[in-house]
Design brief:
Blueprint: E1 21-22, E2 30-33, E3 43-46, E4 49-50, E5 55-57, E6 60-63, E7 72-78, E8 81-91, H1 98-101, E9 102-105, E10 112-117, E11 124-129, E12 142-146, E13 159-167, E14 170-178, E15 190-196, E16 200-206, E17 221-228, E18 234-237, E19 241-243, E20 246-254, E21 269-270
Domain Ig-like: 1-76
Protein name: Interleukin-12 subunit beta-like
Keywords: Disulfide bond, Glycoprotein, Immunoglobulin domain, Signal
């Protein structure tokens, strides 16, 4: 077997956790547990103020009634040392589907892919792939997700991407499952040039710089769209040979083996 070039490790440093959720339909108590096990007493704070209500038992805090006034950030302390924190939030009851919230795309079979959260009503979003650490956005709601799949082997297991999104003291959790090959969409290819032959133009096209290498293994098919000089009509060709008398052309690409989505068209290139 070929070793995957996509091995990686992440250091889990993101706080706070969201593992304690209150359900509007469940009147039962909620138990918060301090992640650390220090020697000595543990005290709890809510939004920075010491908790007066609730049942403290060692490193746990039990809240009997959960409603808006007690929703927010809880932190456990050992003296003046903060140990960990947890957001207590209500479960978001919106039945919206994950595909309308989260869109993902891979520009190649290399070691990461990109996702975007599409709903601006949420103030905080983070993603997780399998058992990896939570992944926070690069900028806005855009995410770069590393993976360890080998680009040389056929996928047998779906990727499982979990999303946690916060709005108005409630958290929405969703899971998206897919194969990497199903989200592959190459960047636009490069039109290197064209050469006149007897009755045709031969167009030279190169894969985008972001596409997986070697190109002899990761093959792309190209489609050329052109405009005829004589009548202005548009034609398309899956061959590199096109009619000679054209005014301009553009190209797009896709992976023919998984029938991926087509790339965006290149800009029109004038033919002189």
């Amino acid at each position: 077997p070929i070793t995957s070039p996509c091995s990686f490790s992440l250091s889990c440093v993101h706080e706070p956790t969201l593992k304690a959720l209150a359900n509007r339909n469940d009147p039962g108590p909620i138990t918060l547990t301090c992640d650390a096990k220090p020697e000595g007493n543990v005290t709890w704070r809510f939004e920075g103020e010491e908790v007066e209500e609730g049942d403290t038992r060692g490193s746990t805090l039990i809240l009997s009634e959960v409603d808006a006034p007690v929703l927010g950030e809880y932190s456990c302390w050992n003296g003046h040392r903060r140990l960990s924190s947890t957001y207590l939030l209500l479960e978001d009851e919106d039945e919206v589907k994950i595909d309308s919230l989260l869109s993902c795309r891979a520009t190649s079979y290399d070691c990461n892919f990109h996702c975007r959260w599409n709903n601006v009503e949420f103030t905080t979003v983070r993603l997780g792939l399998g058992q990896s650490c939570p992944i926070v956005p690069d900028c806005g709601f855009n995410f770069t997700i590393p993976h360890s799949l080998s680009p040389y082997e056929e996928e047998s297991t779906m990727l499982e991407l979990t999303a946690e999104a916060i709005r108005n003291l409630s958290v929405l959790r969703r899971t998206k499952r897919f194969y990497l090959r199903d989200i592959v969409k190459p960047d636009s290819p490069q039109i290197v040039g064209y050469q006149e032959q007897e009755q045709h133009l031969k167009v030279t096209i190169e894969p985008p710089s972001s596409w997986s290498r070697p190109h002899s293994f990761f093959v792309l098919e190209h489609e050329i769209e052109y405009v005829l000089k004589d009548n202005g009509k548009t034609g398309r060709s899956s061959s590199s040979l096109i009619p000679k008398r054209i005014s301009k052309l553009r190209v797009r690409s896709r992976d023919p083996f998984v029938v991926s989505a087509w790339s965006h068209w290149t800009s029109w290139k004038k033919v002189v």
